[in-house]
Design a protein that fits this description.
This protein is mainly β. It has a single domain, classed as Beta Barrel (Lipocalin), CATH 2.40.128.280. The protein is built from two helices and nine strands, in the order αββαβββββββ. The longest helix has 6 residues.
Length: 153
């Protein structure tokens, strides 16, 4: 899997800039055993990406397989994540899975399967995340400058 594809997989991400200046301690933060914030749990459809502030095609950022037209990241309360690419007919073309860990607004994604086959576990990328309503923003440092990905529920 390429570095760009690895980045995309979390982008679920499965990953983001803090929203607001005050931490809301009254909101549920650990609905699952992995401590995944409730606001992060769900299926997110990738919408846009920038690299060093410049709009960039999601297909380039994530090295989509030929024919892919969209992608989702699913984050579960138990810390499982799944990244999936689809064609225009909503047929799955590629998938990877693994775990996501969260500490504050920081996340780390580890991949352990691709297209249903086990692969040696490896950390793909880490960054920060923010959720505002139904919008997820992931920010990851790269050699080309910050990569910012947005996704919606």
């Amino acid at each position: 899997m390429s570095i760009a594809r690895a980045f995309m997989i979390l982008a679920l991400a499965f990953a983001l800039l803090p929203v607001g200046c005050k931490k809301d301690d009254d909101s549920p933060s650990s609905p699952g055993t992995a401590g995944i914030p409730a606001a992060l749990v769900g299926t997110w459809t990738l919408q846009s990406a920038t690299v060093n502030g410049q709009p960039t095609d999601l297909a380039i950022v994530f090295s989509w397989v030929d024919g892919s037209e969209s992608a989702t990241i699913k984050v579960e309360a138990n810390g499982a994540y799944t990244y999936t690419e689809y064609n225009g007919a909503a047929a799955m073309l590629y998938t990877s899975g693994g775990t996501i860990t969260v500490s504050g607004t920081n996340f780390t994604i580890t991949v352990n399967s691709e297209n249903g086959q086990a692969v040696p576990a490896r950390e793909l990328f880490a960054g920060t995340y923010a959720v505002a309503g139904n919008t997820l923003t992931l920010t990851i440092a790269s050699q080309f400058g910050p990569v910012v990905v947005t996704a919606t529920k």
